[in-house]
Input
Amino acid sequence: MISAFVFSPAELSDEIIQSADLVHVSCIPYLLGEPLPDRKSSGNNAGSKLLLSFPFISKGKAYRAFCERFGEFSKHFDGFTLQNIGDYETLCELMKAANISRSDIFAAGDVSLNITNASTAEFWCGKLDSAAILPELDIPEHRALIDRFPEGLIPEVALGARKIVMRSEHCFAAEGNTYKCGKCGRTGLSGGSLFDISGKEFPVVTNPLDCNSILLCPAPSGDSGAAAFDYSSKKAFFRVV
Amino acid sequence: MAYLLSPAGNPDCLVAGVQNGADEIYLGLTSFSARAGADNFSLENLGEWVRYAHLRGVRIHVALNTLLKDKELASAVEMAREADRLGVDAFILQDIGLAEKLAGVVGAKLHASTQMTVMNLQGLKMAKALGFSRAVLARELSLSEIEELAGAGIMETEVFCHGALCMSYSGQCMLSFFTAGRSGNRGTCSQPCRLKYSYNNDKNSEKHLLSPADLCTLPYLEKLTATGVTSLKIEGRLKSPEYVAATTRAYRKALDDPKADVSQDIKNLTVIFSRGGFCSGHQLGKLPKKDITLSYAGKTGLPCGEIRGKITQFRKNNTDLFTANVSLSEPLSTGDGISFSKGPEFGGIVNIIENKGKRTKYAAPGSTVRLTVSGTAPKASGNEPLLICKTVDIMYTKELQKSFATGSELRKVPVTARLSASGGLVTLTYSDGIDCAGSSVPFVQGAGAPEAALKEIISATGGTPFEVKSVEISGDCGFITFSSLKKLRREAVSALTAIREGRRPL
Output
């Protein structure tokens, strides 16, 4: 099964919607006013699911706004992608307040839940429907962990996708000392890039609501050997974007 | 009052923390520690250091705070169980799987590492459900956010009060892994934050864009403790024992006396380790960009003077030396280390100080002196003033070293003593809240020694951590030889030592 993570609606192409079984979308653009997708399971001819990601940082204006609009979001997305250990508790509280039952939504855990062993996966089983494995594990370790994932929790392999290598309270794109420069615009991938001295590019994704940012790994890392996996397997989601 | 938690990368650091006033020490073992580069402790010597700390009322927290692979879990659990048997007080964990396996199994408490990125009430609730009793909160929280979490009563909270800051939320960084193949989540961070980066490939902006100054909360420690946080943590398991001694001493003083003047302490800490001064992290609001140490990511020291005139670089006896006139803003001694504010990679050790043509070992602020330094100086850059910074204060360093390198007991455990006669026996009891006595000696009729002499012997606990605060002599203790009394003292001290060493401090 194929999955994808997109940082802005502009990246949410028909191709991705049609080909991916699971699509995670950053919530930041929607919190900034981007129109919500007009359907639940949009274009979902193949049964793919569109999940709205919790904010990458679990505090601040973005987090509060996400919580306030949860009921509205739940009508437009098939589920939610958790970014932080506390997000599960938040999700439960929000579902209760919105009178949504757990079976009505798909809950996924992102790589930031730091799953590197079966015991941790076991903890999330029953709470989440799928959970990404930390991409610091190598291919044999991924294979072994996929085999040991508990029934009822689908592993997601993010080896071949763009990866968030840093979540920072800083804004790497900000100018001056105030964090109020406003230069990042309104949506996702507009934060420019950092370059290391060897010229490797690390794209910056900004959150204008809180003036914090994330750093992506240098240009999509090819498949990082992920092609060694059978993407058609139903045992796991394989994130390609 | 908040507890003070100090780092220990090796036994000297542990002693430095204990002797200078830490309530708690955190350390790593030979595996599964987020500071694999530190010397760390082995299970073979851990028991000795747990007893050392417990005797002095200090708790030991063991950091098993890396993410674990399946093949490592069993040995991590076994290591934790062995450390638990040795009496450690808490485990600091990141891995949820390990927490699940230790919760309810070990006697030690479980603390959620800052690597778990707990930053809101829901995170605390999840940590509690996992069996944690304390959470080390994310370093990016403001005072009001810390107050909200500390005041929620869900569990104990711990925050960093001093030391290096990460650019990323801890536990959410894979930069080191994807740039150097070394995982910060697995204890081998290569510190790519301290390297140079440019923004949008503008070479003019190529600086240390990801390297924040170190945190120092001394200027507003009262506000931080007023949040109700349980424990204040000093970062630095890779730092020297002198750093541990200095930071622990400074924060102990500030905690014990919130009105104390800490300006000199801040200067001392700036010399010991700082990157372009200190900052307040995110605790007083979002970290200003000015607190990113753009020009240099290493140790910089305390500005202490300005070069006047020309620097002369030369070689003598195969040693690089330079001389210069310096107008001092801080005291300087021979043996001190200096660097240059613009060119921290330059500098050296002050060999000679000449004040008005006369050699001196010490020069006061305000004086202009001629220095001879073993080391190298940067080339002059126009008319810009060239500042020098003190990176080693030799006198202060020696003073700090006395606290951990001499076996002296700076940290005293207050006890009371009672000499009593009953049933024909004389008994000496020391108490730290729990009474401890050795054997008793038979009561002998006769004129006893003067009470003052007895009290002097009973109070003579030198060479131990115990300080006798009061001595009570009850009943007619009759005649007791000084040698018998000293024997009772040795036995009672020994009994109290054994009890304290084997007891987890409250």
The mean pLDDT of chain A is 89. DSSP finds seven helices and twelve strands in chain A. The first strand of chain A starts at residue 2 and ends at 6. Residues 121 and 220 of chain A are 26 Å apart (CA to CA).
